[in-house]
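DM from R.C. (forwarded with permission)

"hey, sorry to bug you on a friday — could you get me a structure for this? deadline for the figure draft is monday and I only need the backbone to look sensible"
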Amino acid sequence: MTGRAALWGLLVALSLFGSAQAAARLKMDDKASLWPRAAASEKFDFTQRVGQSMSTLSPDLDSAYFMRCLEEIANIGDTKDLTMSDMVRTCVSLAGSHAGAEATE
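My reply, with the result:
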């Protein structure tokens, strides 16, 4: 019977660990001020998800681009009133304006 109790304890611990990891994921509606304090794995996960969805718009909008762009935006100014969604939209806008400037040259 103790083996069964230990197994249940292990399953509960694993489910709590999974829940804690899911709760730690950065989301689009999170405050942008969380970005500088987020773990590298959280940043990587977020930029992977954003890069996968946005690369359908343009191949240049990949996870590496979003990692660089979000780092720059977070380090440049006061982000306390912004959300992660605001920062992603800014990155998309910057990429679009940069591509437009190259096309006119």
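R.C.: lifesaver. Residues 6-23 have pLDDT under 50 and may be disordered.
me: no worries. The radius of gyration is 19 Å.
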